Amino acid sequence: ISFNAIDSALSSLKNCQSYINSGMDVATQVALDLVESFNDEEDINNMEKVMLEYATMDRELNHYIKAFEETINQVKREKPENLPDLESLAQEKFLEMESENSDSDLQRNEKYMYFKDQLKEMKKQYHGNDTIEEIDEDIAVTRSQMNFICPITQMTMKRPVRNKVCGHSYEEDAILEMIQTQKQKKKNVRCPKMGCSHVDVKGSDLVPDEALKRVIDSQNKQ
Length: 222
What we know:
The protein has about 220 residues and is mainly alpha-helical. The protein is built from eight helices and three strands. About 65% of the residues lie in helices and about 5% in strands. Strand 1 and strand 2 (about 170) form a beta hairpin. The radius of gyration is 22 Å and the shape is globular. Pfam families: zf-Nse.
């Protein structure tokens, strides 16, 4: 059996994921633009609906890819004399995965979570605390202590990244260099923000702090 055609099709499907990711990135930027220009709340809510639609597509695509991969691996393992109907087998697995869907899956989509977090931060920076609903208490505390100065370089940040674990922000190059240096010494990196108890900063926990960057850029223009 030649699986080349199937592998090629799966590869194309995986490429579709990059388009979904790009779409979610654009939707996040548009939502932040809307907050920055004090647009109507309804427009911002519409961008959230767009994000949830993308998250739904992403979940469906993931299930489809997984169903086909599992089917192919099963056939390769069992090596049946007569090749079964691969499409029907994959469709069966796909529908089984889809039947277990819940709304909470979408809320846990990494890009959707990033969208919500950055939106909260942006609203706080531009409209004050009273417009934020249901902000996590821990995030509120760490955010209220946040300023534009990197705790490592002691200079205003140009490309801030935020630690998803403790909520603190640093200059991207500075924190990555610190992680690399400590890694060579086989040591963990303690969060350089004074008073933070987080003792294992990882590169994979860092995300661009787009909301903070926009506020810093806006201040610099003034």
